[in-house]
Amino acid sequence: MGPRLRLLTANGTDIGREREENQDYYGFYEGTPYGYLWAVCDGMGGAAGGKKASIMAVELIRDTFHEEDHENIEEVIRTSVTRANKAIFERSLEEPVLHGMGTTAVILVIKNTQAYIAHVGDSRIYLVREGQMQQLTTDHSLVQGLVEEGTLTKEQAKDHPQSHIITRSIGVMEKVDCDIRSTPIELKPDDRFILCSDGLTGMVSEEVIREFALEFGPRQACKKLIDLANKNGGTDNITVQIIKILPPLPPPRSFPERLLKRAKSFSKKQYLLLVLCGAIITIATGLGWWFWPEAEQEAAMENHAISDEVISEGRADEDPGERVEDSGERVEDSEERVEDSGERIEDSKEKGEDSGEKTGSDLE
Ligand code: CA
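A: This is the predicted complex of the input protein with calcium ion.
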């Protein structure tokens, strides 16, 4: 069995300062048959359509990931997006008020030590590794097309008046093509993944996103990025999820090693106290022996011999080997519990639509 995956994750979303509704939606799900799943969707269209589309997409992706009958991760991703597209498209035809609704989607799946990336539209996934940040997705947008054909520079694209026009989305057409990264990414400790909607990347530079992701834990970084996007204008809904990969747990230490480590961690005061206790016990025993009548001493010696046997029998029953192993497992358990509870805290926010305020203290 390989090392257990450990990670921290946090997320937040905010309506921004100009929009009347938050049409972004996101989810984080543990324990799917295909590993951990994260999704960020940025809805658009109509009075009620955008919000409806992003919620439908996240929920349909989630539901598909909980089915066990898909062959591999690539297939489950493709099926989930196709299903979301079909459902949103059909729904938009049924209800005139939802006509034209659609949504972007970025999907991150982590299974064992690998990460799978997929997207439709201009929401993004970044990877921060060894201090450098790389965009793992390529926007399906009008300006990205112009950048690729050399008409615009990346800098010009940022402030382009049509930067919000996307060329691919879920639910707008009868069919959708989802980009899935051809090879999964082999995880390294300290990797950070950032999923976000364009409400973040439009307001905060990549350089600052990288700095915040490196400098702060996921929870604090999410909060600070959302705050900064709002400070810089907040013209759109802002959503961000950050995942930090932790190093695997070291194997449980053997009993003598742990004892040694504990002894090393004693302070001078504790040492002194220990020595003092030892000295008192020695002196008291010596004094007692000195003043004890000789006949009673002999009797005690005999008793002592008997009681010695009893003790050693008791020890044999207990089997100290097992005891060591037991306590080792307990130590490991308690560390895993810390990690677990961290994830649960994140999980509880999975449907929070306005949890920007809740991203208070970090788990680390
Ligand atoms: Ca947006």
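Residues 255-318 form one domain. The chain has two domains: 6-248+335-358, 255-318.
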